[in-house]
Amino acid sequence: MKEEIIIAGFGGQGVLSMGKILAYSGIMQGHEVTWMPAYGPEMRGGTANVTVIISGDSISSPIVGSYDTAIILNQQSMDKFGSRVKAGGLLLYDPNGITSPSERKDIEIYRVEAAAETAKINNLRLFNMVVLGAFLKIKPVVKLENVLAGLKKSLPERHHRLIPLNEQAIERGMNIVEREL
Question: pTM for the complete prediction?
Answer without folding.
Answer: 0.92
